[in-house]
Amino acid sequence: MCANDSNITSEYDDSPNCFSSFENEVRFQFTRDGSTGLYNTGVEDVYHSIYGAKTEAEEKFVLPLNFENNFINKNNIKVLDICYGIGYNTKAFLKKIITTNYNGQITIDALEYNKKLVLISPFIKDGYEDKYPEISFILLRALADEIHSSSDFIKYIITHPQYRKFIAPFYRRLIKKFKHLTYSYNPLESNNRFLHNIYYHCISPRNKKHLKPLKINKIIFNSYYEDARKSIKSLNGPYDIIFLDAFTPTKLPTLWSYDFFKRLNSLSNDDTILLTYSNSAAVRHAMIDAGFYAGKLFDKEGRCCGTIATHNKNFILNPLNEYDCGLMKTGAGVYYRDKDLNLTAAEILEEYAIRKKELNLESSSHYNKFHKREKVNAKI
Ligand SMILES: C[S@@+](CC[C@H](N)C(=O)[O-])C[C@H]1O[C@@H](n2cnc3c(N)ncnc32)[C@H](O)[C@@H]1O
C-alpha cells in the first residue's frame, strides 16, 4: 500500500479515537470567497481551490452544464457526484435547481469514502447558508438517520472551538439556544435533544415556517461510503451528469485511469455531461480512448479550468485544438491503467512508469519547445 493510501480514512469509525484521526487528516481553512475549504495532510492536497470552494464548484461544475439549455426540460435528472467531500458540487447544483425552479425528479448519488465529511456537510459554512438554507435542509433530511447515529462526532465538530467558525451560524445558534438544557450527566440525552431540535427546525413538516423551502420534495440523495471504484461497479446508469472531483491525478491516480473512464462511459447516455477540473493531457486521452469526446473549459478570466467529456459534440463549446491533440501523443498523454479497478495507488504508478518507459514517447517539454518554435516561425 502506498503511503498516500494508508493516510486516508477509508472506513467509517465512530470510536473516540476517530476524532483525532479525522483531525490529523483533515484541516479546515477559509477560502477567498469566504466558504470553508479543507486540506488533506495524508495526500498533501487541497480539497478545494484556495480562491473559493463555492466559486470553484459553481464555475467548474455547474456553469459548464448550461443547465437552462441542456437539462431544464428533462423530467428526470440523475447526477453522479464522485468525491462528494463536503458537497460543494452537489450544493452548487441544488442552488441551480432552486434558482431555475426546476420541477422534475432529481436523483443524486454521492460517492465518498470519508463518511464523516458527508455527515458534516449540511452544517458547514459554505456560503449558501443565508440565501439558500434549504440546500442544507435537503441534505439533513437525507442524512438524518446517519447523523443521529454519529451524533457524538457531529456535536463535537459543531461545538469545538477549533471548528466553530466553520459551522453555519444557524446551527451554532441552535446549539447555543439549547445549551442550558444540556444534560451533562447524560450525553446521549443531550445529543438526542440537539438532533430533535435540528429536526424540528429544519425538517419536520409540522414546522410551517420551514415547510416552504422544503417544497422541493422530488430530490433523492443517496450516499455511498466506500472506494468510488467499487460503487461504480454496482451502480446503474445512465447518469445525465457526472462530477469528477478527485485529488490531483499525480498525487492519487486511482480515479483517473482509462478503466475508470471506461466504466463511466458505460454509465452514460448520448447526452451525459462529465465535468472535471483537470486539464491533464493523460486524463483527456483516457476519456477519449474510453469513448467520450473531450473539450476544454474556461473560467471568467479566460483561463483553462477543466475538461468536459460527453458523447454529444454539441455540448462542447471549446474543442481540443491541434496543440492539445499533439500533447496527448507525447509522454504527458500516457494514462493510468487499473484493469479491474482495484489496484493501489502505488501499483498504478508502478505499472504506469514501466509502460511509459517502454513507450519512449517524445517528452512534453520537447514538444512544447517545438510547438512554441512552430508558433514563432508562423508569426515570422
Ligand atoms: C478534491 S476532494 C473533493 C471535494 C468535494 N467535491 C467537495 O465539494 O468538498 C476529493 C475527495 O475525494 C475523496 N476520495 C478520494 N479518493 C476516493 C475514492 N477512491 N473513493 C471515494 N472517495 C474518494 C476524498 O475523501 C475527498 O473528499
Question: Can you describe what's shown?
Answer:
It is a single chain. The protein has 380 residues and is of the alpha/beta class. The chain has a domain at 3-224: Rossmann fold (3-Layer(aba) Sandwich). 42% of the residues lie in helices and 16% in strands. The chain has 16 helices and ten strands. It has helices spanning 3-6, 16-25, 53-62, 67-70, 88-99, 115-120, 133-149, 151-159, 169-177, 187-203, 228-234, 258-266, 281-289, 322-327, 345-359, 364-379; strands at 26-30, 36-40, 45-46, 76-82, 105-111, 219-224, 239-244, 268-276, 293-298, 304-310. The strands form two sheets. The chain has a seven-stranded mixed sheet. Strand 2 and strand 3 (45-46) form a beta hairpin. Helix 3 (53-62) crosses helix 5 and helix 7 (133-149) runs antiparallel to helix 10 (187-203). Residues 47, 83-89, 111-114, 117, 227-228, 245-247, 252, 254-255 line the site of S-adenosylmethionine.
Task: Set out the fold topology.
Layout: H1 3-6, H2 16-25, E1 26-30, E2 36-40, E3 45-46, H3 53-62, H4 67-70, E4 76-82, H5 88-99, E5 105-111, H6 115-120, H7 133-149, H8 151-159, H9 169-177, H10 187-203, E6 219-224, H11 228-234, E7 239-244, H12 258-266, E8 268-276, H13 281-289, E9 293-298, E10 304-310, H14 322-327, H15 345-359, H16 364-379
Parallel strand pairs: 4-5, 4-7, 5-6, 7-8
Antiparallel strand pairs: 1-2, 2-3, 8-10, 9-10
Helix pairs in contact: 3-5, 7-10, 12-13
Bound molecules: S-adenosylmethionine.
